[in-house]
Write a structure and sequence with these properties.
Glutaredoxin, five-stranded mixed β-sheet, 5 strands, globular
Length: about 240
């Protein structure tokens, strides 16, 4: 009987410890995001000087579309962000079919991993797949299989499993890239760029011309008509120059 009671006490202590860890984890994330909302909008009044299509591409940012296009759409997102998934499942597909595939715009992805502890590692992994021209396939896989924030669905082991599902992926090269965190500094620079633009939430977007002017900002998973209005207006301005 004493042994049973002792085991029960140990079990209850373990459950309490796990619950406390979960509560503290959530509180930390929420407090960090709240602080970002206060501080980051004042990080910089000016847009980054290197916000041009040629610079973004030369730095290694994943992209889709015709590089001769005069319109650029930059997407700052987090693979654990459920609002980003909502955008990907709806608006992004319409933008892709209306502007990117016809060659009217270039779509550039930038990392803003601010939703949880595992987000940054997911960004590093995604950038690793870009070395093999597999970024957009990996992007699609992660959002299709998205799980609860920091539930382990994008831990290192699962990221390797996701990569292994992509046809013709050199998994040895990918694992080496991920294990050495080859693109951690790259992701950090993306975060710094987002901060300099005053972005604190994901998804956030820049719509501009290829030279980095006529910048329009969108924050949140806005419906396609809002994007269409801004893109068409900018396209008209460029055509009338």
């Amino acid at each position: 009987m004493i042994s049973t009671q002792r085991s029960l006490k140990v079990y209850l202590l373990l459950v309490s410890a796990c619950f406390l860890f979960l509560v503290l984890n959530i509180a930390y994330i929420e407090s960090t995001q709240a602080l970002n909302r206060i501080i980051l909008p004042y990080a910089a009044a000016q847009s980054p000087e290197n916000l041009t299509l040629s610079t973004l591409i030369s730095q290694g940012s994943p992209y889709q579309g015709n590089l001769n296009s005069s319109l650029v759409i930059i997407d700052f997102s987090d693979f654990q962000c459920y609002l980003c998934k909502r955008y990907v499942d709806n608006t992004e597909q319409q933008i892709n079919s209306t502007y990117v595939q016809p060659g009217k715009a270039v779509y550039v992805f930038k990392h803003l991993p601010n939703r949880g502890f595992d987000s940054k590692n997911a960004s590093i992994a995604a950038q690793c797949t870009n070395d093999q021209g597999k970024f957009w396939e990996f992007h699609k896989t992660l959002y299709a299989d998205q799980g609860p924030i920091d539930s382990g669905w994008v831990n290192t082991e699962n990221l390797k499993k996701f990569a292994n599902e992509i046809p013709n992926m050199n998994i040895t090269q990918f694992e080496s890239c991920l294990d050495t965190k080859k693109y951690e500094s790259f992701v950090d620079k993306d975060i710094a760029m987002a901060n300099s633009l005053g972005f604190t939430e994901t998804p956030s977007f820049i719509i501009m011309n290829s030279e980095g002017s006529n910048i329009e900002k969108i924050q949140g998973p806005k419906p396609f008509p809002i994007f269409k209005s801004i893109i068409d207006n900018l396209e008209s301005k460029i055509s009338n120059k």
